[in-house]
Amino acid sequence: MENDFKLHEPQTIAELQSLIREASIISLNTRKDSPSPPNTITLSLSGFQKIVEYQPEEYTITVEAGAKVSDVISILDEQGQYLPFDPPFIDKYSTIGGMIANGYSGPGGNRYGILRDFILGLTFIDGLGNRIKTGGKVVKNAAGFDVPKLMVGSQASLGVITEATFKVFPLPETYRTILFRFDTFESGHAALLALGRSRFTLDALDLDSQGSLVIRLSGQSDSMDVRIQALETLIGRSHEVFSEDKSIWTTSLKLQAFPQAGLLLKIPSSPTSIRKIEAELAPYSTQRRYSIGGFVSWVHSDNSVCELSELLQKLDLAAQIVSGDTIEHVIGTDHPRAFYDRIKQALDPQRKFANIYKK
Fold first, then answer.
1. What is the reported pTM?
2. Contact criterion met (CB below 8 Å) for 27 and 354
């Protein structure tokens, strides 16, 4: 049966609630290149782009889900503030709601935490059309059961996010990005583990499949040289400097832009497990980047969904499909499925939104 595609762009909460109540299947297209299932009502939140409230003195900002991530970053930058979880994949289409639904955090999450650690409150519409407000708008008021964290990475399968409140941080005085090259992946991995156990405070700590270790530091300008010298002493080799801080973060898997083709996977990992992941993935047609100190593995591959899912099952891992021409959301193992199904039943009993696990 062919899909009679029609994009709906509600302008009010009441209109959005009505569409959800009347629909059988709903899609938000939060993921690049993802096709919609047949007979789906596709929603756009382009009518929800306002900055609801910004209190620089309280270090909080509340925005509607259709707001562009790049616009929010610019507004914060004007006040000398930023989102420390370092949102990746920022382009003209990237929205706050899509970022939350997919749980995107960049390399900068290594120091202060990932996206879910910075959400104070969320407002969303569940599968019955109910408007649900959770959390608070200031740090001291955020209390109760932490429903917002359930929505992060849910890929729009539990409800339609309409508004979010974030805590933000003041911008550091300066940044410095340095690179340490190693002859083998194993040597670079050993250095990553040593740094993870050390006293060093690193904004970003990433490792690529060639064994190059990339570190980003922030803080006062007059402390940088001393900190870098201490890193060289620990690692036992000299560093390379990049004149443009952002350049290195766009070269490996291009986390500032989605790949033009193939599948991009995000795999929850641990620093000690990535050596095994690398050994298993190396023979395949993949590019790999181990980010946030090794707790997130990014994999770009031209292999099929079935091949990658079987490989992940062998490793007892699951992966979120970030971009690619497939309706699959999560592949590999499905250990959290029982818990997810209980939440799904509570928030979307009629199964109007996508299910991230295969039936």
1. 0.89
2. yes
